[in-house]
């Protein structure tokens, strides 16, 4: 069963945003830094204000990078590289996944798949910590299949998405 899909700009940006989403550990860390900074402002001496400002600036810069810079770079990359706009085909096989585009055909074998993640819109298959293939679930459904076609195949090799 072959599933054909195309990554739109919004799919690419959405997948990048999900990749860089805040985990629970990050949320706790940013919350703790913000609380410490606010405590320094409220109860600290005058010389602690610059430290509190630096802590709050660090949280703000991190937010701006994740919410503004990463999506901007993703849009720029999508427009810059025409291969991202190609139609892709993915087919589950015993060895992993056979992937085809207008410019290449290759096997995404089990030994190079590091992990996989899914959310309500996308399935991401990672071959390196920051290199992944995005499969929009909307195209899987449009081809007449359920997203579980891909996720069940991944779960047969990996216990769960990470």
From TrEMBL:
Matches recorded under InterPro entries: YcxB-like_C (IPR025588)
UniProt key word Transmembrane helix: yes
Listed transmembrane segments: 28-49, 55-74
Domain YcxB-like C-terminal intervals: 93-140
Keyword field: Membrane, Transmembrane, Transmembrane helix
Protein name: YcxB family protein
